[in-house]
Specification:
There is one protein chain. By secondary structure, the chain is α/β, with parallel strands linked by helices. The protein is built from 22 helices and 15 strands. The chain has two domains: 204 residues, Rossmann fold (3-Layer(aba) Sandwich); 249 residues, 3-Layer(aba) Sandwich (Rossmann fold), CATH 3.40.50.1100. The strands form four sheets. It has a six-stranded mixed sheet with strand order 3-4-14-9-10-13, sandwiched between helices. Strands 8-5-6-7-15 form a five-stranded parallel sheet, with helices on both faces. Helix 8 links the parallel strand 6 and strand 7. The protein is globular and about 60 Å long. The N and C termini lie far apart (46 Å).
């Protein structure tokens, strides 16, 4: 059965999956959601016998119903290939009583590769299917990882250009070096004075600017998004939760149908939303444990039912989670509001105007599957150190946040179900934070020397993603204010006025 996609704000008529992938954001400012969440159509035992690529096809075909089998399998084959340093694509590693789902084996050593390796292929296929003559301009804000993964995915892809904005002082040195050294004649990177929320708000304003949209169209361009607001990002993320469960089943760590818990370090809420979708497809997940850093807007929401971004913004050791506006939460709000787009739109309008909204009690009852927790920077650093000393396994600061929250959850609830923790980045992406946690004196070493030292103590080779930028020249040195972002985009595209 075909699944169409509608806006979370009710202002757009339902459209096929390929069109939703192309548009990225609905015309009314809402996010595209499937009219229904499909059920798994294979047994758990069948998934246990599949490769990652086979699992990806079986899950994605249920959502992307206007793609043919040939088109979808072609996209999957191009995405999940030798760019990943393991044939398993997303291996599980057991450490200290939990299974860490390693989502960082792709080209940019962060979980964003899992979806952004396939999104360019889904998008160019969609453009052909819908006879799109315009060049597609990918416009993205990043808190660190999406930017590089999107740049790597779209670099030199015919018929596309990509523009990435990032907070100039809000990403790690290696994250920044990865972006500003990006090759590709169709790529453009700019730092903004401000934080990630400023960058993301600026991108949303550009998407909502009808005059700019018309000017682009006149010059043969149209916008789309590679952020997690694009449904083409969310659907591939569902795959790895099914694959993780199937792996545990295959390795006889769980029995078929046994419930597991899932812990996700969360900023923009897309990664844990994918687990929520997997659960509602029939995957035996019990609790969805949402782990925040000191920017604990989601923790406070799960505690109180009030979402309030009016607070101090904290720069932490886990910068990809330094977010106060979790865009993908809107998809969950829509779901727990009984798919009431008008109710959701009113809440989002309150967030935009006042910076705060409160959901009603009936909606709060729909959140019972979630548990919110947070970790301080001190707790995060201590967890990196103790995990290394205890097991030899090295966590990055984002995964360490999740690990701390999981320990708190177990102590509070006594729940010892088998648990999968989403390990969202390689520790080599955050060498300074990691090494300062393990070995306090690092002031006289640059981030690449620290990567060499991390390699020595962990026994893991420095990833190619780090080696290739060690001496790479800076190709993008653009910096602007948030209100100059549209002007920067037009300049890159050669559009005047």
């Amino acid at each position: 059965m075909e699944i169409l996609y509608k806006s979370t704000r009710n202002g757009s008529k339902p459209i096929p999956a390929s069109q939703a992938v192309l548009k990225g954001l609905a015309d009314d400012g809402g996010l595209f959601v499937p009219e229904r969440i499909p059920a798994l159509d294979r047994t758990l035992e069948e998934y246990a016998g599949m490769s990652y690529q086979e699992t990806a096809y079986e899950i994605m075909k249920l959502y992307l119903t206007d793609y043919t089998e040939e088109e979808l399998k072609d996209c999957i084959a191009k995405a999940y290939d030798s760019k990943f340093d393991t044939k398993k694509i997303a291996p599980l590693r057991e450490a200290d009583g939990a299974w860490y789902l390693e989502l960082f084996h792709g080209a940019t050593i962060a979980f964003k590769d899992m979806a952004l390796s396939i999104l360019p292929h889904l998008m160019t296929t969609a453009a052909r299917k819908n006879q799109i003559g315009n060049e597609i301009v990918i416009l993205t804000a990043t808190s660190g990882d999406t930017g590089k993964a999107a740049l790597a995915g779209f670099a030199d892809v015919e018929g596309t250009r990509i523009v990435v904005f990032y907070p100039k002082n809000g990403v790690s040195p290696i994250q920044e070096k990865q972006m500003v050294t990006q090759k590709g004649s169709n790529t453009f990177v700019a730092g903004i004075h401000g934080n990630f929320d400023d960058a993301q708000t600026g991108v949303k304003k550009i998407f909502a600017d009808e005059g700019l949209k018309n000017r682009l169209d006149a010059h043969g361009f149209q916008f789309s998004s590679a952020n997690s607001i694009n449904i083409g990002r969310l659907v591939p993320q569902i795959v790895y939760y099914v694959y993780a469960y199937a792996t545990l089943l295959k390795e006889e760590k769980i029995k078929s149908g046994e419930q597991i818990n899932v812990v996700v370090p969360t900023g923009n809420f897309g990664n844990i939303l994918a687990a929520y979708y997997a659960k509602h497809m029939g995957l035996p997940i019990d609790r969805l444990i949402c782990a925040s850093n000191e920017n604990k807007v989601l923790y406070d929401f799960f505690q109180s039912g009030t979402y309030d971004r009016n607070r101090e913004f904290v720069l932490t050791s886990s910068p990809s989670m330094d977010i106060l506006i979790s865009s993908n939460l809107e998809r969950l709000i829509y779901q727990i509001a009984g798919a009431d787009g008008d109710k959701n739109a009113a809440l989002m309008a309150a967030l935009a105007k006042e910076g705060v909204y409160t959901i009603e009690e009936a909606m709060r009852q729909e959140l019972k599957d979630f548990y919110g927790g947070y970790a301080s920077m001190q707790e995060t650093g201590e967890r990196i150190r103790t995990m290394y000393e205890k097991t030899g396994y090295v966590l990055d600061p984002h995964t360490a946040v999740a690990s701390v929250v999981y320990e708190t959850y177990r102590k509070e609830t006594g729940d010892h179900k088998k648990t999968v923790i989403a390990s969202t980045a390689s520790p080599f992406k955050f060498t300074r934070s990691v090494m300062e946690s393990i070995r306090t004196s690092c002031e006289d070493m640059d981030d690449f020397a620290l990567a060499d030292e991390l390699s020595r103590i962990s026994g893991i080779a420095v990833p190619g993603a780090v080696e290739e930028i060690r001496t790479a020249p800076v190709l993008h040195d653009h910096i602007c204010e948030a209100d100059e972002m549209a002007e920067m985009v037009c300049g890159f595209l050669g559009i005047e006025g």
